[in-house]
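User: Could you check the structure of this?
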Amino acid sequence: MVWASSVVLLLEAALTLVVTVVYNQTRESPNVGGNYALGLLAAPCAAVAGAVLAAAVSGAIVLPVVRVSGALGRKFSGRERWWWAPLVMAAVLAVLWLAAAVGGAVPWSLCAVLWGVVTSAALALPAWATGSRCVRRTGAVAGWGALFVIGVGVLGCVALRLNLLQTYRPPTLSPAALVGTWSDNEGATLRFAADGKVTATGVKEHREENFNTTVKPCTGKGTWTFDEGENSWTQEVHVTLPDCSWPAWNIGGTQEQPTLYQYIGDPDSWDLYTLKKR
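Assistant: Sure, the predicted structure tokens are below.
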């Protein structure tokens, strides 16, 4: 039963990962080329960790729910009914969520409630599979489930390739489009002039020192240049100020609302400092 539940949980996790990767291709994100390569390298470790976590969740949550739902089915319905598993799972998770909300661990919000509903549905499926005939056909469930996940991934790639789903690309800018004032919405501004001069007011400079990020506000006048690169991903804006040493600014956002951004700390964290044009 633990094996059957773990297989279903792992298939759900794999499907969620595939859908998330495809969806993220359509959303604005910084260009971190090594992320997927690192993900492939870490896949074996992630699979082992996922299997251990799935087995733990199955033993601690799914199996007790299966036992309780079976007992309730026999008591009130004369025999086990499949719909008792999702009902009991939803009730258990509702109690846990209410306890966490009262204790302040999770917020009282619609988003939290929706996450609770999604979690209930995700855990109800392995509970149902464990309490049904699927437990005797775990190998078939694993095989067909894996084919389904692969099929979703292939369809997603085809949709991206054929532009049925629009892949995100940064806007293509020109030096003239950069002229003007850019702000971080916290009072800091970077003002580009058409003659190559730039004026900074409180724009943050992030430095890594002994694995800690220090922030220094930069104010002054200097120069700027634009490197159009080979494509929209490699466009860069170089800003030179006497007392600050920023790396090149990357371009993001959309054609209607472009942004300038820099990484804060490790680029893999996707923690960004962003300026928007006024």
